[in-house]
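Appendix B. Raw example, untouched.
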Amino acid sequence: MAAYRPVPPRTGTEGPSRVNAPHPTEPPDPSARPARLSVGVVGAGRVGPALACALRLAGHRPVAVSGVSDASRRRAERMLPGVPLVPPARVLELADLVLLTVPDDALPGLVQGLSETGAVRPGQLLVHTSGRYGASVLDPARRAGALPLALHPAMTFTGTEVDVQRLAGCSFGVTAPEELRLAAQALVIEMGGEPEWIAEEARPLYHAGLALGANHLVTLVAQAMELLRKAGVEHPDRMLGPLLGAALDNALRSGDAALTGPVARGDAGTVAAHVSELRKHAPGTVSGYLAMARTTADRALAHGLLKPELAEDLLGVLADSADAAGGAEGSDGR
């Protein structure tokens, strides 16, 4: 494998940012750039093919991909046409840079198995995209001579070509040995992203923060649309779009100071009416509403948005509602 020469960090004097520049529509001539790498993907889920496409646009060369399910194999054929589908060990045999894009729980066993069977080659860049794990999960491969990198894109993926465009400006949670920090940074920048350094021991907390924000947001939005449909709103997505966009922008700019609504105002009667209606029309949403309302009340109170004299009645409503919900669950033996 040719020595990989990482792109040096930007100093702010080189002109327009690499991240703000559009991706080229055609891959650049690999001969025009030094140390282009052959790229392999183990696990053709939603993430791996998109990252391989982004690396191809940077001049690297996808050479092999592995996938188990029919969906993953079709995805690989669509997004990486002409790249052969082969077993994982063969991917490592062919590639200088290997993306391990498998589910978190499968990653340690995969790394151990590939290392024990001699599939890992000295000097090979081994990159996983798990948010939960840092570089240490790759220790078995590192002992075999691999160069371990943890590059987690903080982005939701669809498994389609649009994912490549979304990588522009996307933050990556990066964990790597000190001697590989420049290489990690270079790869992230080449994919259009921005590296954010995460300590090894902070990876689970980092991932929990992302899951709390992104995964739970999808659940909340889906529930909100269901409630609006039941209330007779014909196009709940159109109604929620501007509202949620403004709320997200305000929250990112101002944090807890952006809190609004009946909980932050201490409107205990309104909250009680909400709970009553949810019990009638969408009982599955009650526990989530109460949990988020209690958390919102605590934060609003701590930041001086909720007046203490109003908080008492509000918290009483939430406590009574929670007790009533618990009693209802227990009444049928659950």
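End of appendix B.
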